UniProtKB/TrEMBL annotation:
One GO term of the biological process aspect: translation
The protein, known as: Small ribosomal subunit protein bS1
PANTHER family per UniProt: 30S RIBOSOMAL PROTEIN S1, SMALL RIBOSOMAL SUBUNIT PROTEIN BS1C
Keyword hit for Transmembrane: no
Native species: Neolewinella agarilytica
Amino acid sequence: MMMDDDKDPAVEGQVDETPATDAAPETPETTTEATEAESTANDVILGVAEEAQSTAKVIRKEATKVEVALTEDVKEEGVEIEEEDQSGATGSAHDDFNWDMTNRSAASRYSADERAAMEKQYEDSMTNIAEAEIMSAKVSHIVDGDVILDLNYKSDGLLPLSEFRDQAELAVGDTVEVYVEQQEDEKGQLVLSRRKAKLLRAWDRIRDSYANGTVINGKVISKTKGGLIADCGGLETFLPGSQIDIKPIVDYDAYVGKTMEFKVVKINETIKNAVVSHKALIESDLAEQREAIIASLERGQVLEGIVKNITDFGAFLDLGGVDGLLYITDISWGRINHPSDVLELNQKVNVAVLDFDENKKRISLGLKQLMAHPWEVLDETITEGSEIEGKVVNIEDYGAFLEIQPGVEGLVHVSEVSWSNQPINAREYFTVGETKKAKVVTIDREDRKMSLSIKQLQNDPWDVIGEKYGVDSVHTGKVKNLTPYGVFVELGEGIGGMIHISDLSWTKRFGHPSEFTKVGDEIQVMVLEVDEENRKMSLGHKQLEENPWDTFESVFPEGSYHEATVLRKDDRGAIVQMPYGLEAYAPIKLMRKEDGTIADVDETLTVKVIEFDRDSKRLTVSHSRYVNDIRKEAKDQVYKERKEEQDNTRKVLKKTSASIERSTLGDLSAFEQLREQLSNTEGEEE
């Protein structure tokens, strides 16, 4: 043992080494208090078992008190033991103490079976709660914006009052459904959710409606693209515009804020989304009514309907619970552009049943069938040769239809528009809606057909064509049409002819007449030929001038050089502008310049005439030939100059040779004498 002065500071203040096993029995007050506390706890547990109606909160509180009392007793006992040790009491070491022994187990008055029975009664009195389930709870208190819920569990639930805003008046004692998120959180409290319980219940109702066709209620809360958003028990669903009512809805805003009944027509389990329909409820209500109406239908029966929808091809009528289709062709005997020209929405009209299909629930209706056919009441004074006035209602490539009166039409063929043989474009001559006068050519009341003519309202000008439009006569006409091969010119009412593209100019070649003139221009022409039998006339424009090709042969002979400007070109050749406005053709390979490139458009260069054809009025030129000629001429000039130089050299050599041959020996002796004289002179000077 250690002396008091040598105590270890680490164990100072703890129980002394005096044996605790001998000290514990010697504290009767502590044992008695612990025994009484244990007895009290057992009495409480026994009371709970006998009275199952006691709440779990009381049991928990009492048990807590017992545990606190026991803790305090043990603490006091430990203090007393520590005090005895400090006072110098002796005993065995504290390590010999039996720590497994408790006051409760030592003094328990109940057997294991009795305790097990009482624990079972206690647990049976509690509600079994599992996480992720919906439970019923009773409102026990409402305090400061919070709602305390009793689930008959060991602890109460607490939710904010804001989660119950869907209930107008929430009072103590009301039963509500909540979703158990956790049995115990970090603080040991029960975690609940009223919102999740509502959403799960709403989704269950939606699934049931989708599977079994049950009806659910919802409130329209907003408008969205293509429909509405409805709140069905806290879950937002989509109500398409086509599923709001059996008739088309234009104003969606009128439904916002309304409470309606729906059927679920589509669900998405993954994202918990649903599509609802109010129209399905209405249709189910009208199903029996439809069956009754269809069963009583007969062809030719007259019914009253309300126009509920208008489309391009007709109108849908509500016949009192069943729809019928009124095609646009059965609305009026006359032509109409759109059903809205005659009908309007919500209009009441009488219609005749034309046909119906009991299986497909289709009903075809007619409006014009309630009126007499216009051909049956057509004025008898309208006969062949009669002059009438009608409105253009339809235009085709072969002609136009004139409406004499609603339901009575006649055809004006393109051949009956003008006395001229020039082709007539019906779409350019006629305009829908305009009024035209015509003459009745044929009429068949049985087949309800009529042919009309506009040109027969005037005398045939071809009867006197020779008097005014003789050959070689000159006239001014108006260009009416252009084709790839010529120009159609109108000289008078019903009189016209064609200028062939080759007769437009003596000097220019056109790829299309549009390069020379355009529709609407006035042009001067000469009559070349008249065919009265076939009503054809050939015209010319270039014939107004003398043929310049008679003089071009002397101006542009083959081999001559001229300045030319490139007007246009393609892969095969180029058209160049020659003097006097004449156009010539040059093959593309003959337009290569000295540097090897091809001449560009608007470039001016010198060309050589390589072909002149007066009969076909064709002039062919080449720039390459001109370049070759220049090169050849340059070579010839160099050769000529060299030859002249060589000739001159020969003459000089010949002359020099001749002078050398004329030298004699006398000439040589004279030179020798002269040399000697010069030598003597030099000697004297020395």
